[in-house]
Amino acid sequence: MSKRTQYHGLFCLVFCLLMANPVLCYGKVSAEAIPSSHLELTDGVLLGNENRLISNVPPSYNFDLNDWSLSLPIDSNNDEKADLIYENVLSDSFQLTPFFYTAKDGGMVFTSPNHGAKTSKNTKYTRTELREMLRRGNVKIKTQGVTENNWVFDVADRATKQKAGAVEGSLEATLAVNHVSVSGDKSKVGRVIIGQIHATDDEPIRLYYRKLPHNRKGAVYFAHEINGGDDIWVNLVGSRRNGASNPEEGIALDEKFSYKISVVNSTLMVTLIREGKKNITRALTMHKSGYEKRDQYMYFKAGVYNQNNSGDKDDYVQATFYYLNNIHR
Which of 46, 50, 81, 193 is the most buried (most CB within 10 A)? Predict the structure, then answer.
């Protein structure tokens, strides 16, 4: 991480602590830049309505999966890449135990082992993860590039926005992390990514849950990756450090919580909702993050992206989603 990035983060953290402000600012984020969709979220009330979920059906019966594809940590056709289930098949009753199936309470289960097939040679970790597909099964639309399958930032030029499927948007989820890795490299144990915005090459946000073996509860934090540059790390609750102590305000395994990720006018907003507690919201401006360029396109991701490729062969991560909603304009 560069000294400039560190100084930016330190300045903003001290400023917000002095102001007793629940919103962490990177750069200058005015009050008008914070979307009302985050400010109006009710404290301590999880998103969605899990009472409508039913068991003994494939995930697509409970969730609209028409605009998602699914990466799996297996290589059934021996092409040296992780299997990919496209939206038409995924939304037509697809399930595959133990990686992707419906739990007894109706939740959508994602499981990914420490060791397995990966999506590319450049990827270090396995995943069972949804990838947003705005084309909703229209195979005539290319999946990569600035096409109707992907979205862009509002600061993109007019021609780029006209080619894209949407401009900015939000991802909402309610889930419980059921299991994290417990073996292997101490710098990787317990880490899992549960939500992302992926750009052409980099990630405007990776949302992490991490519970260390000696702690009762887990931390939640995120990384904002400058396009072609360093990561900026922001803690929501607890710490990402390898030797972090138990976060008393953290989230235990099997405890349900919600998150909302939004991009509005190139401002990144993240809200963490824990049942019966005050919401935690953080904001970062991305006007100088490099995602306004013509070749930059975005898509949401949700599920489990295991961040441990060491340890026992039977070790794994698992999360159950009870609500998932992607929103665009």
Answer: 193
Instruction: Say how far apart CA 268 and CA 34 lie, in whole Å.
Output: 9
Q: Per the structure block, which two tokens stand in for 155?
A: 């600061």
SS3 sequence, 2-47?
CHHHHHHHHHHHHHHHHCCCCCCEECCCCHHHCCHHHHCCCCCCCC
Who contacts 207 (Cβ-Cβ below 8 Å, separation ≥6)?
193, 194, 195, 196, 220, 221, 222, 259, 261, 270
- Strands 100-102 and 108-113 turn out to be antiparallel
pLDDT at 27 > cutoff 90: no
Backbone angles phi, psi at 90, to 5 degrees: -60, -40
Q: How many Å apart are CA 167 and CA 5, to the nearest integer? A: 28
The domains located in the chain, with CATH, are: 3-328 (2.60.120.200)
pLDDT over 70, % of the chain = 90
